[in-house]
Design goal:
The complex is a heterodimer of chains A (about 290) and B (about 325).
Chain A lengths: L1 H15 L2 H36 L9 H28 L4 H6 L12 H33 L8 H25 L2 H28 L2 H13 L2 H11 L3 H7 L12 H24 L3
Helix pairs in contact in A: 1-5, 2-3, 2-5, 3-5, 3-6, 3-10, 5-6, 5-11, 6-7, 6-9, 6-11, 7-8, 7-9
Chain B lengths: L21 E10 L2 E11 L4 E5 L6 H8 L7 E6 L2 E2 L3 H5 L1 E4 L11 H11 L4 H14 L15 H13 L5 E5 L7 H16 L3 E5 L3 H7 L2 E6 L2 E7 H6 L2 E7 L4 H10 L1 E6 L4 E7 L2 H13 L4 E7 L3 H9 L8
Parallel strand pairs in B: 3-8, 3-9, 6-7, 7-8
Antiparallel strand pairs in B: 1-2, 1-4, 4-5, 9-10, 11-13, 11-14, 12-13
Helix pairs in contact in B: 3-4, 4-5, 9-10
The chains are: A mainly alpha (about 290), B alpha/beta (about 325).
Chain lengths: ~290, ~325
């Protein structure tokens, strides 16, 4: 009950502070641009293919799905990146900011547990971000379907993994927000996010160059913050295997998907960080 | 606000209990090397209005924050309404107006009260009944649907006070409840406090406005450097050191010396009349002094007790222990 009150308050704040409005407007703009891009890509692809097929030495046609899949990957990567940034920005001050503003002074003495405040806030953000991710994935895949005449596989699985990426970042941001000031937390979380993204790139590069050291650096960064490795798994899931082997190691995807164990690690990571936020907040002087 | 006195009582029957409403035993809070509250012991009875005074940095707000569960004591213990700190049953019956009345400014006044009513576990029916009552009490009924962002500081403080009374509390902690109010607003808050007092609500009032505390409180504690420097009924603290000025006819040095055995003589001024200022801790000695003077044939034209204010007591209690300005 108390958790629900705080969750509702968190959602209401996002609406009232026009966070939602800004995000919706920009997201619609993104989907519109994406649709135009996908349309132009398809026109271009078809005209090149027509010219190629007209040549006397033309071999069998390459699969359209490979190219369309790359477009979908680009769209989903953008969704993943935007929600990652949004997660951090939305939650960076969720506890620290309220301590700084003094708004918790009237909330904490109420007959509720401190853990309920953290749980309620987390629930509020989780609902908001999950709905947002689901809508954005829907936008990208509807575009792909209607404009690009291509339907990517395993969308639900991929969407859940992108939501997991967002939850990983949310848990990290929550822990930071109970430990540090808003600004310090923002700096730390963004640096870690950068490390994870770069680590993922290094790992892909290492796979392409057969460098074990680089692959190990990537694995290390995904232990520190498994957001990027879960994105790569998502990218692997939503591409047909033909496209994966054709494109090979690349900045946005992977040819060597993280294992089931990595997924369990990521889920455990969320839980441990969230429980730690509660424990830190329980003991903290306000 | 002052017109609302004829409203139904703010709180129904308050059960009587023999144990204190607030009990602090050797409460201590240390931040690193900085001792915020040293050793605070206090007891406040049910139905009392208790004034909590002290210079800036004496540990007043830290003490209240410890009682409200915002800050954890380093050592010592405290009980509110007979229950340990943080007890949810006790919290349901406690109201609190924080010093920095900063609330979620994107809520309207009535949404804000509805949120806090929910946090108190009040049913929607109870909230629908109670919210208009507290809004009327603090004279904000007309502003209920405006965002808190648009409220003046005084209005924010009043809505905060309304918030602290939502649950019909048995015990209310008010941290500087009138700091942002003009004289009229202060008078209105005093009227609310006196109404709550009549209804048996225990009020713990932290204010640096001494006249305010003097007017509203039954008992006060003056704390300095995280300890209780003085505590007692307001009248007792005010009369603890009684200043009396005697306006007398001619008087011999011997009589003055005899008078000096009864009272502590501060100064003697000769003029048309001899003026003697004296200090005593016991009212009886004044009567004995008048007796002595008339026995010795000294004409007594006037005996004027000098009414001390809480400010005088405060300065007396706090100053000697301080090392100059900080």
């Amino acid at each position: 009950m108390n958790v629900a009150i705080i969750a509702r308050l968190t959602l209401r704040e996002a609406v009232r502070r026009k966070v939602i409005l800004g995000v919706v407007v920009l997201s619609l703009a993104f989907v519109a641009l994406y649709a135009v891009g996908f349309h132009l890509f398809r026109e271009n692809y078809l005209s090149i293919e027509a010219r190629r097929a007209a040549r006397p030495d033309a071999g069998p046609a390459p699969s359209y799905a490979v190219s369309a899949s790359a477009m979908v990957l680009l769209g989903l990567y953008t969704v993943n990146f935007l929600t990652g940034i949004m997660t951090i920005f939305a939650a960076v001050g969720t506890v620290a900011g309220e301590i700084e503003a003094g708004t918790l002074d009237a909330i904490v003495p109420k007959p509720i547990g401190r853990w309920q405040i953290i749980a309620g806030k987390y629930l509020g953000f989780a609902i908001m971000l999950s709905i947002y991710i689901a809508l954005m994935v829907l936008g990208v895949t509807l575009t792909s379907h209607v404009v690009g005449h291509y339907a990517p596989p395993h969308l639900l699985h991929g969407t859940l993994l992108v939501i997991l990426v967002s939850m990983i970042l949310l848990s990290l941001t929550f822990l930071g927000s109970t430990l540090f000031s808003t600004m310090t937390n923002g700096v730390i979380v963004f640096m870690l996010y950068g490390v994870a993204v770069t680590g993922g790139l290094v790992e892909q590069l290492g796979t392409a160059l057969n460098s074990n050291t680089m692959v190990h650096i990537g694995i290390g960064s995904s232990i520190l913050l498994p957001s990027d490795s879960m994105w790569r798994l998502a990218s692997y899931v939503v591409q047909p295997s033909l496209a994966i082997s054709f494109i090979g190691p690349n900045p946005l995807g992977t040819t060597t998907p993280p294992s089931e164990l990595a997924v369990r690690y990521a889920i455990a990571y969320c839980i441990v960080l969230l429980v730690s936020s509660v424990l830190v907040f329980q003991r903290r002087d306000l | 606000m002052s017109q609302t006195v004829s409203q139904p009582p703010i709180i129904d029957a308050v059960p009587v209990s023999t144990e204190p409403a607030i009990e602090l035993k050797s409460l201590r809070k240390v931040y690193g090397k900085n001792v915020a509250v040293d050793d605070l012991s206090l007891s406040v009875d049910y139905g009392e209005v208790f004034g909590f005074l002290g210079p800036n940095g004496a540990g007043k707000t830290t003490s209240i924050k410890m009682l409200m569960g915002l800050v954890y004591p380093t050592s010592g213990r405290a009980r509110l309404l007979g229950r340990p700190l943080g007890d949810r049953q006790a919290r349901k019956q406690i109201g609190y107006l924080p010093e920095l009345f900063r609330f979620h400014e994107w809520l309207t006044g009535s949404e804000f009260l509805d949120l806090h009513g929910q946090l108190y576990g009040m049913s929607s029916a109870a909230r629908a009944k109670r919210i208009p009552e507290v809004l009327a009490l603090v004279d904000l009924s007309a502003e209920a649907h405006r965002k808190l962002r648009t409220y003046s500081k005084g209005m924010q403080q009043r809505i905060g006070l309304a918030q602290s009374l939502l649950n019909n509390p048995r015990l209310v902690f008010l941290d500087e409840p009138t700091s942002a109010l003009d004289p009229l607003g202060r008078r209105d808050v005093r009227a609310i406090l006196s109404r709550l007092h009549h209804e048996g609500v225990t009020i713990f009032l932290n204010s640096h406005l001494l006249s305010e505390v003097e007017l509203s409180s039954d008992r006060v504690a003056i704390i300095d450097r995280g300890r209780v420097a003085a505590v007692g009924r307001v009248e007792d603290l005010l009369s603890r050191d009684l200043m009396v000025e005697f306006r007398l006819g001619p008087i011999t040095p011997e009589t003055i010396a005899e008078l000096g055995e009864l009272l502590h003589i501060e100064c003697v001024t000769d003029g048309d009349h001899t003026l003697i200022s004296a200090r005593t801790s016991n009212e009886e000695t004044v009567a004995m002094a008048v007796d002595l003077l008339s026995r010795n044939g000294v004409k007594v034209y006037g005996v004027m007790p000098e009414r001390r204010s809480l400010e005088d007591v405060f300065v007396d209690v706090v100053s000697p222990t301080r090392d100059g300005g900080r």
